[in-house]
Write a structure and sequence with these properties.
Elements lengths: L2 E4 L9 E5 L2 E4 L8 E7 L3 H12 L6 E8 L5 H11 L3 E6 L5 H10 L5 E4 L5 E2 L3 H10 L6 E9 L5 E5 L16 E5 H7 L10 H10 L4 E12 L5 H4 L1 H16 L5 H14 L6 H10 L8 H20 L1
Parallel strand pairs: 4-5, 4-7, 5-6, 9-12
Antiparallel strand pairs: 1-6, 2-3, 7-11, 8-12, 9-10, 9-11
Helix pairs in contact: 1-2, 9-10
Length: 318
Amino acid sequence: MDMLLHSVGSDDLPGFCACSEDHVELHGAASTPRVSVVLPVHNGAAFLDAAIASILGQTFRDFELICVDDGSTDETPQILQRHALADRRIRIITNRPNKGLPGALNTGFAAARGALHTWTSDDNIARPHMLARLVAALDADPGVAIAYADFSVIDAQGEVTGLQKMGPASDLLLGNRIGAAFLYRAEVTKALSGYDEALFGIEDYDFWLRAVRRFYFVKVEEDLYLYRRHEASLTDRRALRIHRLGSQIMRRELAMVPSRAMRARALVEHGLASRLDPRLDMLARGLILSPGLARGRIKAILRHLAQHFVRAITRRTG
């Protein structure tokens, strides 16, 4: 069975009925929610309670939380069921076998009923006013399709270790300027056909790069989210693959940029951005297009070259 969709996990509770072998629907549910929040999780029991609680504790209450259990083998299913039994806004979808993060996101948004979409991770925490602030930003301008905000970085113990100030969407070619706290209209999901399932680990950046060609963004100048970095986090485990996929999608994007100056700037920025993937061809192409970009960055360029030279020698001798 590829996918199971639940409103809760028990069909003998008051207000619920099993409508088919693999589909359970909520009877007497509230009208269509304004916001659909998707929470994909694969073996995320360690921080899952806090992640769910942060969504249920939002000051903006008109939402559904679609939890996509992506083939978990730990205590994740039990945690999801416990929360779903306590709050009728929670729906559970189970993927077997697991599809990976972008596949789980697409599964969740295919079931979404809200006019506004967002997603969160099983190890991160939304600040209480996140949805309220982002909904208000979209309501203030119907011409804007995507709202986003700053966020803090926390460690495994939940201690804040830094603040990430997001940049303008117009600078997306220079890096992911949207970050971890965002809300967008359902029409964005539809127009982009969701997330690219071949880009596991960089699917969000690819999504924003495709979105900025067609939609307007608005930045909310507030810290609305806590992004957890820890030893088992997806970003750390798959760092090299993510960096290489980032190079791949940037080459695709830059081929469509008519501005020589912007291409050069983006090539140099991404050429210097990775400590794991050398990207020396990108750096060289950028400097050839615009030699002046080397001014004031000689030290950074030399450090980058030296670091990757040392890494190459270490790999050979190791």
